[in-house]
């Protein structure tokens, strides 16, 4: 019998350790594949995946069983991958010094920071975008805000708003089209 993730979680919390094994086996490959997109290699992906399942096991008692288990698990995977990448050791510039103490990499850098006119232009574009976005119908502005300010996925936005996924995607697409048309008219 193929039990759902929700049933396996409930079984595990009731003391059935075998349920945890089934949950891990069922989700191991999908989580590994997801994490691999962040890490880019097998060794780091294996480390992150192991970390994901340790965190899942430690926090399973706090998991809200009214929520979707896979969504929760993949949120852990995403956060673990991002944390790993943040902690990843960067190569210090001193590693690039030659025997004379000259840093050939640092000496070849040019200043890549934007010049004041570019900053001013970006600021003006952002101001215009914010003004146009504020004038959008509420249903469009709300989707844009949740997507870009709150960094929610379309399915999370749909659940939050109590709307169908395709409705949310359609509103997002229409809002982007409106913004593009306004900016094209300004050029």
UniProtKB/TrEMBL annotation:
Residues 127-176 form the RNA polymerase sigma factor 70 region 4 type domain. The keyword DNA-binding applies. Keywords: DNA-binding, Sigma factor, Transcription, Transcription regulation. GO terms for biological process: DNA-templated transcription initiation. GO terms for molecular function: DNA binding; sigma factor activity. Residues 23-89 form the RNA polymerase sigma-70 region domain. InterPro entries: RNA_pol_sigma-70-like, RNA_pol_sigma-70_dom, RNA_pol_sigma70_r2, RNA_pol_sigma70_r4_t2, RNA_pol_sigma_r2, RNA_pol_sigma_r3/r4-like, WH-like_DNA-bd_sf. NCBIfam families: sigma70-ECF. Belongs to the sigma-70 factor family. ECF subfamily. This is RNA polymerase sigma-70 region 2 domain-containing protein. It comes from Candidatus Giovannonibacteria bacterium RIFCSPHIGHO2_02_FULL_45_40. The lineage of its organism: Bacteria, Candidatus Giovannoniibacteriota.
């Amino acid at each position: 019998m193929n039990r759902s993730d929700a049933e396996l979680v409930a079984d595990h919390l009731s003391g059935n350790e075998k349920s945890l094994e089934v949950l891990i086996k069922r989700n191991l490959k999908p989580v590994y594949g997801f994490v691999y997109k962040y890490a880019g290699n097998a060794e780091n992906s294996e480390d992150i995946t192991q970390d994901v399942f340790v965190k899942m096991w430690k926090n399973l008692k706090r998991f809200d069983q009214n929520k979707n288990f896979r969504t929760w698990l993949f949120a852990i995977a995403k956060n673990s991958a991002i944390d790993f990448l943040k902690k990843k050791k960067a190569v210090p510039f001193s590693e690039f010094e030659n025997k004379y103490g000259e840093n050939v990499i640092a000496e070849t850098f040019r200043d890549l920071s934007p010049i004041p006119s570019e900053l001013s232009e970006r600021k003006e574009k952002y101001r215009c975008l914010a003004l146009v976005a504020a004038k959008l119908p509420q249903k469009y502005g709300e989707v844009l805000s949740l997507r870009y300010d709150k960094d929610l996925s379309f399915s999370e936005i749909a659940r939050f708003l109590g709307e169908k996924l395709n409705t949310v995607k359609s509103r997002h697409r229409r809002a982007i089209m409106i913004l593009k048309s306004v900016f094209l008219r300004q050029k």
